[in-house]
Task: structure prediction
Amino acid sequence: MEFLKIEEINTSYGDIKVLHNVSFSLQDSEIVSIVGGNGAGKTTLLKTISGILRPVSGRIMFSDMDITNTPPNIIVSLGLVQIPEGRKLFSNLSVLENLELGAYTAKARQVKDDNLVKVFKLFPVLRERSGQLAGTLSGGEQQMLAIGRGLMSLPKILMLDEPSLGLAPKIVRVIFGALKETLFQGIAILLVEQNVQQSLILSNRSYVLENGAVVLEGPSKDLLRNDYVRKAYLGI
Result:
């Protein structure tokens, strides 16, 4: 089942066209990665899906519903939740307060306590730091908190923008391992990453975005062996 389907999306900033006829799909309970270098259009793509940017043309389908011009708050309530690059936490609020703010929709508020238990099980350090100000956490802990806050919104699809940026390899493995665990909760993941190797290892399928266009796609295990990907992105 195609849970999320992007059809021939074109997005511009003023007169500058950034995305060029981008199409891809995400199945129920799978991880799909969008990989590419700086300026490839990855963040623009997520913002377009999230409703922050409106595409010039094309269509975004979610569970057979056209959400192309749907406001961001409605998109979140439908279950598409973005974890932005840079985390965007409320640094002067505690860990617990940040998590509780994630449960702002009516449906999420009804199961807030149960979801907190799940988030603390996924990231035990957040329970230990629950009373600590978010701005005093380490980079890795802040990324865990950003993901945890997203999970509090009851996502059906969790969209992550560069979750490994600036983090030590050990912390990246912990976070990516936790993301894989969320699949058992029935959450699909759209992962946007510059860390191509880790993304391909984690995901089921992948799309390579260059200059705003999809240039390669396929099972991630096949792209790991692809000569172009190995040379251009893995340095092999």
About this structure: The CA atoms of residues 125 and 141 lie 8 Å apart. The chain has eleven helices and ten strands.
